[in-house]
UniProtKB/TrEMBL annotation:
Family (UniProt): Belongs to the inositol monophosphatase superfamily.
Protein name in UniProt: Histidinol-phosphatase
Organism expressing this protein natively: Pseudogemmobacter faecipullorum
Superkingdom classification of source: Bacteria
Sorted UniProt keywords: Amino-acid biosynthesis, Histidine biosynthesis, Hydrolase, Magnesium, Metal-binding
Length: 269
């Protein structure tokens, strides 16, 4: 019988914690240990820890939800035609991981008919875990979390992982955004979105992300009172271009989006 988004998803929420603990055990066993690093075709690094973690997550998903699809960073999709798809990023922030920096995370989402119903950001070294469920408050380690009430870009604390990730006019757009903000910080990868969901920063802008990078963030940000879309203001999906803007409030999101639209190139026609 097909599952419906109106169900409580109790089993699936419990599974998120199980998956996070399994991933945590693997990644921590390799963290700050000698490890071989390979470069993928896009020149991003990958390690045995990435691959072993995703393999275990896939095994767990297939065991608990055999009819569901899986989209991950390191292996080909499985059951891609399923109404329900689990999206996993075993190590978000591999560059942090291989350099001994604790701000790497494990991301998991559950989509139904393309809509993110569940999302999780787990930070293995820090012991912090954000969970989001569509239509429900987001949590940090089980306690409800909320974004700040920042409504103006001039008051906003802004994060992005690296300005080097912005190509061409996208960099100009981010620099315009940063110039209007109160404070800009770099680094963090998925951790920035957890900070946003807990009220410690107000705006995160990124470009060039993949579905496994951004889809797990959607329920977390929205359930904490924030807004997350692409740079055109469209909801994030499996087919988004990878330009992401997340804001603490609708008002701040609208101001940032207006600035980005005026600076960045539009989608290909």
């Amino acid at each position: 019988m097909p599952r419906d988004s109106s169900l409580s998803l109790t089993e699936e929420i419990g599974f998120l914690a199980l998956a996070a603990e399994a991933a945590k055990e693997i990644t921590l066993s390799w963290f700050r240990q000698p490890i071989e690093i390979e470069d993928k075709e896009d020149h991003s690094p990958v390690t045995i820890a990435d691959r072993a973690t995703e393999a275990e997550l896939r095994r767990l998903i297939a065991s608990h939800f055999p009819a569901d699809g899986i989209l991950g960073e390191e292996e080909a999709p499985s059951n891609p035609e399923s109404r329900r798809i689990w999206v996993v990023d075993p190590i978000d922030g591999t560059r942090s991981f291989i350099t001994g920096h604790p701000l790497y995370g494990c991301l998991i989402a559950l989509l139904q008919d393309g809509i993110p119903l569940l999302g999780q950001i787990d930070m293995p070294v820090l012991g912090e875990r954000w969970q989001g469920r569509k239509g429900a408050p987001s949590t940090l380690n089980g306690a409800a979390c909320r974004t700040r009430k920042c409504q103006r870009l001039s008051d906003a604390w802004i994060y992005t992982t690296s300005p080097q990730a912005f190509p061409g006019r996208s960099l100009a757009a981010f620099e315009a955004l940063s110039a209007r903000g109160r404070l800009t910080r770099y680094g963090g990868d998925c951790y920035n979105y957890g900070l946003l969901a807990s009220g410690h920063c107000d705006l995160v802008a990124e470009t060039g992300l993949q579905p496994f990078d951004y889809l797990p963030l959607v329920p977390v940000i929205e359930g904490a009172g924030g807004v997350i879309t692409d740079w055109q203001g469209q909801s994030l999906s499996l087919h988004s271009a990878g330009d992401v803007i997340a804001a603490a409030t609708p008002e701040l999101h609208a101001e940032a989006l207006s600035l980005l639209r005026g600076q960045a190139p539009g989608p290909a026609g």
